[in-house]
Amino acid sequence: MVGVRAARLAELTKVGPGLLASLVIAAAAAFLADHYAGPVMLFALLLGMAMNFLSEVDRCKAGISFASRTVLRLGVALLGFRITLREVAALGWQPVVLVIAVVTLTILISIWAAKALGFKPEFGLLSGGATAICGASAAMAISAALPPHERKERATGFTIIGVSTLSTVAMILYPAISKLFGFDDNHAGIFIGATVHDVAQVVGAGYAISPEAGDTATVVKLMRVAMLLPVIVCIGLWARSKGGHGDGERPPLLPWFVTAFAALVVLNSLIPIPEFVRDAGNTASRWCLVAAIAALGMKTHFQEIIDIGWKPVVLMILETMLIAGLVLAVIWGGWI
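Predicted structure:
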């Protein structure tokens, strides 16, 4: 027993400083987001990048890596508290079909566009998945599921910056676009929920129109969050077909955090979980993801982001325009 306690204490001592640094940066990002109404994920990434010298400090390295991997996966798993199958079923089959079709088309076209621009298909999957599903959270989850690559963290950091910035722009513009097209509250909510990247910006844009539009937008957005599960399963199948993550072993079809995510969705749907438990799970998920992004920022240098060039910017703008255009066409065409 004494030996086990000593081992746990040694492990905590090893990861403690870097994990504490990630949590402090996450708290600072949350403060800025609350007081200046900005995207907390973007603040966390930028503050982390400003403190990237900590990733070179020996005492902090282990904790920063722990936050960017294990804490990230825990945050993704806890996203399952956000979704119930009842909420999805309440909207009917048409919005469900719309979400599945739009997410699938956006990701597939993004992979094709990335290859056309000279990037690896993984970058199209990462950026397209972030655009199509739930912004920075999806970028982190997809990055965690992708096989290791020397440029993966840099690509993930760039994707988070791009998707957070574009999501904020969409939050401002899309309510005006809904009004321009003469959408009622239901259609405006579907448009907002099916196109804006991050959950927080969906809520902001939806409720800026009306409470009814906000409710619809939130449920449609959660349907997109639910698409994270099949997308990661597909990534797992693809990774297994390539023969593993470079260590000679085949990766699991469902990583533990995806299994936990699915279990929480089912549990949340079948059992009446108290509201305070769901709120606690959502809060824990948010803090885990913000801390993980702060850790990712500490492992990233500004120059690495700048060196990526203009092509990824064009790709992410095109992805944003694509998903908005697809949803507008469906609603304007009277198919929903």
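Summary: The longest helix spans residues 2-36.
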